[in-house]
Design brief:
This protein has helices spanning about 1-25, 25-30, 45-50, 55-65, 85-95, 120-130, 140-160, 170-185, 200-205, 210-220, 225-230, 240-255, 265-275, 330-360, 360-375, 385-390, 390-405, 435-440, 460-465, 485-490; strands at about 70-75, 75-80, 290, 295-300, 410-415, 420, 425, 430-435. The protein is α+β, with helices and mostly antiparallel strands and about 500 residues long. InterPro entries: Cyt_P450, Cyt_P450_CS, Cyt_P450_E_grp-II, Cyt_P450_sf, Insect_CytP450_Detox.
Length: about 500
C-alpha cells in the first residue's frame, strides 16, 4: 500500500513537472523571445504578492525587452507584450479584425454588472458601442457642463471653509463622486459635505485594497471562465444590489413624473425605451471614417471588424442593426462602468496634476494666467467653450496623462490566427496581447527625460514628430475609451 501511494505521488509530481515544462516552453516552441518564468507564478510573483501593481509589472517587462515584442507568462497563461508602435497600430487599428476582444470576464446571468461596454466582446460589444457612441458627443457634453460647474462651485465653497493646508486625496475623491453621481445617475449625493454618503461609501468599497478584492480581480482577469463557473462576482457584495436599486428608482421617478435631465442616465433611459437616442439622426447606421492625410482609419462609433481596414480607398461602410432597447440590467451595467471608470480616472488624474503643478511653479503660473485670461473673455464664467479654448490647460492635462496614465496597460485577445509581420511566427487564436502604456509613455526614445513634467511635449509640432500609438491614455482604435471626451472635460 505504501509503495502504491509513493508511486501515485511520484507519477503526479512527474505529470505536474511535465505540464509546467510544456506550458512554460510555449514561446520557445513558437520561436518568440521570452522572459524565463518561475513555477507556478510565471513572471508575476511581485504582482501576485502585491509588491507591485500590474502596471508596474508590465513596465518592468517592457524595460527588460529590447526587441519589438516579448513573450511572458501570467501564471500559466502565455501573453505577448508588443512594444513596436507600428505593430501596436496594426493590432489596435489596421488588423482590428484579428484582435477585437479583450478576453475579459463577463457573466450576464450571475453578475449583470460585468456585461458593460469595456468587457463585452463580439457582436454584443459592437451593437452596444453603436448605441452608446453619441452619448458623449460635443453637444451632449455641452449640456452636461452646467452639472459639472455646479459641483465645482460646491468644491470651491468647501475649500474656502477648510484650513490653509488640506489633504486633497479624500476631497477630490468626494468631488469626483459628486460629479459622476450627478452626471451618471442624476443624484445629488453631496459627499463633500457628508463623507458617509451612500455613493461615497460604495465607491470606497469598490476600490478597497485587501486579499478578497485582489483574489477576485486576479481570478476574473486571468481565468474568466473559472470565475463564471465558481460564480465569483467582479464586485464586492452589495454593489450590484445598490446600483440596481438606484437605477430602478431613478427610471421610475423620471418616467412617472415625466422629468428629463441632461445627464448620462437620461440618455440610457432613451436607449432603454427606444433603442436609440431621440435627438440624433434616427438611422441605424455606423460609419467608418478616414483621415486620408495620415492614412489613419478609425470608427466613428462601432464599425465592423471584418475587412474594413483593408477596404479599398477606406470608403465608408454602412452597418445595419435592429433597433432593440436596452434592458434594465444593461442600463445598470453601463451606469456602473461610467461610475467605476470615471471615478478612479478623474480623481487620480486631478491629484497627480495638482501635485505636478505644485512641484513646477513656473508651469502653474503660466496655466493660472491662461485660465484668468480665458475667463475674462467669458464674463468670468466656466463654460464648455471656455474650457475648449484653454490650449495650455490641454497640454498640462495631456502631460499628466502621459506620466500617469489612468490604466497602465491595454489588453487584447487574438480572435483569429495572425502572422507577425516579417516573421514566420503565428499568434494562435486565444493568445493574450498586452501593451504597456506606462512603458510607452516613459520611453526616452519618444519622450526624452521622461520623468520630467513638460507640457511642451504636446505642442502640435512635437506631437507630429512622434510615432503614432506612443501616447494612448484612453486606448486607440475602435475600442478607444468612449468617455475620453467627458473625462477630459472634468
Amino acid at each position: 500500500m505504501v509503495w502504491f501511494v509513493l508511486g501515485f505521488v511520484a507519477i503526479f509530481l512527474i505529470a505536474v513537472y511535465a505540464y509546467n515544462r510544456f506550458i512554460y516552453t510555449y514561446w520557445w516552441r513558437q520561436g518568440i523571445p521570452y522572459i524565463s518564468p518561475s513555477v507556478p507564478f510565471g513572471n508575476f510573483w511581485n504582482v501576485i504578492t502585491q509588491r507591485e501593481c500590474f502596471a508596474e509589472g508590465y513596465r518592468a517587462i517592457y524595460d527588460r525587452c529590447t526587441g519589438p515584442w516579448v513573450g511572458f507568462f501570467l501564471l500559466h497563461k502565455p501573453v505577448l507584450m508588443v512594444k513596436d508602435p507600428e505593430l501596436i497600430r496594426t493590432i489596435l487599428m489596421k488588423n482590428f479584425a484579428n484582435f477585437h476582444d479583450r478576453g475579459m470576464y463577463v457573466d450576464e446571468k450571475n453578475d449583470p454588472l460585468s456585461a458593460h461596454l469595456f468587457s463585452l466582446s463580439g457582436q454584443k460589444w459592437r451593437k452596444l458601442r453603436a448605441q452608446l457612441t453619441s452619448t458623449f458627443s460635443s453637444g451632449k457634453l455641452k449640456r452636461m457642463t452646467p452639472i459639472m460647474v455646479s459641483c465645482t462651485e460646491d468644491l470651491n465653497l468647501h475649500l474656502q471653509e477648510c484650513e490653509d493646508v488640506v489633504e486633497l486625496k479624500e476631497i477630490l475623491a468626494s468631488f469626483s463622486t459628486d460629479v459622476i453621481a450627478s452626471c451618471a445617475f442624476g443624484i445629488q449625493c453631496n459627499s463633500l459635505r457628508d463623507p458617509n454618503a451612500e455613493f461615497r461609501k460604495w465607491g470606497r468599497k469598490m476600490f478597497e485594497p485587501g486579499p478578497e478584492n485582489t483574489f477576485r480581480s486576479i481570478l476574473c482577469f486571468l481565468y474568466p471562465s473559472v470565475a463564471s463557473i465558481l460564480r465569483v462576482r467582479s464586485m464586492v457584495s452589495g454593489v450590484t444590489e445598490f446600483l440596481h436599486s438606484v437605477v430602478r428608482e431613478t427610471i421610475e421617478y423620471r418616467e412617472t413624473k415625466n422629468i428629463s435631465r441632461p445627464d448620462f442616465m437620461q440618455l440610457l433611459i432613451q436607449l432603454k425605451n427606444h433603442g436609440e437616442l431621440q435627438d440624433d439622426e434616427p438611422d441605424k447606421q455606423t460609419l467608418l471614417s478616414t483621415d486620408k492625410t495620415s492614412e489613419k482609419c478609425y470608427y466613428s462609433c462601432s464599425a465592423p471588424y471584418y475587412p474594413s481596414w483593408q477596404n479599398p480607398g477606406c470608403q465608408p461602410i454602412k452597418i445595419l442593426f435592429d433597433i432593440v432597447g436596452l434592458t434594465e440590467n444593461e442600463v445598470t451595467a453601463q451606469a456602473f462602468v461610467f461610475f467605476f471608470a470615471g471615478f478612479e480616472t478623474s480623481s487620480t488624474t486631478i491629484n497627480f496634476c495638482l501635485y505636478e503643478l505644485a512641484m513646477n511653479q513656473d508651469i502653474q503660473a503660466r496655466l493660472r494666467k491662461e485660465i484668468s485670461l480665458v475667463l475674462d473673455q467669458h464674463d468670468g464664467k466656466i463654460s464648455y467653450e471656455a474650457v475648449q479654448s484653454m490650449e495650455y490647460l490641454d497640454r498640462v492635462v495631456a502631460e499628466t496623462l502621459r506620466k500617469y496614465p489612468p490604466l497602465g496597460w491595454l489588453n487584447r485577445e487574438c480572435t483569429s490566427n495572425f502572422a507577425l509581420p516579417g516573421t514566420p511566427c503565428v499568434l494562435e487564436k486565444g493568445t493574450g496581447i498586452v501593451i504597456s502604456l506606462l512603458g510607452l509613455h516613459r520611453d526616452p526614445r519618444y519622450y526624452p527625460d521622461p520623468d520630467r513634467f513638460d507640457p511642451e511635449r504636446f505642442t502640435e509640432e512635437n506631437k507630429k514628430s512622434r510615432p503614432h500609438c506612443t501616447y494612448m491614455p484612453f486606448g486607440e482604435g475602435p475600442r478607444i475609451c468612449i468617455g475620453a471626451s467627458f473625462l477630459n472635460m472634468f
